[in-house]
Amino acid sequence: MSWSLRLALLPLLTLLVVVLGSIAALLAQLNGEFLWQSLTDKEMHFALCMSLGTSLLSLCLAVVIAVPSAWLMSQVRLPFARVLDTLLDLPMVLPPLVTGLGLLLLFNSQGILGHWVPLLSEVIFSPLGIVVAQTYVASAIMLRNARGAFATLDHGFRQTAFNLGLTPWQTLLKIELPMCWKPLLCGAILAWSRAIGEFGATLMLAGATRFKTETLPMAVYLNISSGDFELAIGAALWLLLIGLVLLFAVRLIGGRQ
User: For residue 73, which of 142, 150, 176 has the smallest C-alpha distance?
Assistant: First the structure.
């Protein structure tokens, strides 16, 4: 191996050491009593169920929003397409706290939607607020992946379907979705993992209340703040396990394309 390649190994090894070190530091906290507490604690059960329940609902909403939107953008050339692309990508680059603040100002009693629909301002500090925040960030990721999936399709398949008398909607259901379901599924898994790990926007929009709006990231925050490091590490380990499983699923599905 040349010296240039050996030098290039240094940043790779540095990154790998940091990643493995952070994971090892969490796993080093495991022992029988600690593991049992993490598996049986009522707060952990609530946070786990809240995270999985809200994130699955958010994922369904994100798919319903993002897939038709991405399909439309692949079908027609919309006005100001570059500006539209930039705006739709904003949720992926904005700090989560800024995203949450914007959503809060939109939905509170003084905001546009909160003024038109007063019920929204009354229920955002609840699991509904969690779903809104998670859907917002998950939709951007799902939209980007869905657009990439539809962009890889040969336009000849679509044109042939039109020539055979299929409508655009029938073409989507019978041709395009079956041909690109794997990248769409990978995108959905990534969007789901982002929803499960969402913290900043959820904190601003739904608040941090134990046994009410407590997701796993919120449980880490609340228990660190109160000095209960064992429960905080327990919630972090749950998030680590879920993340590893979802990444393995993406690799497995992506490897079979």
Answer: 150
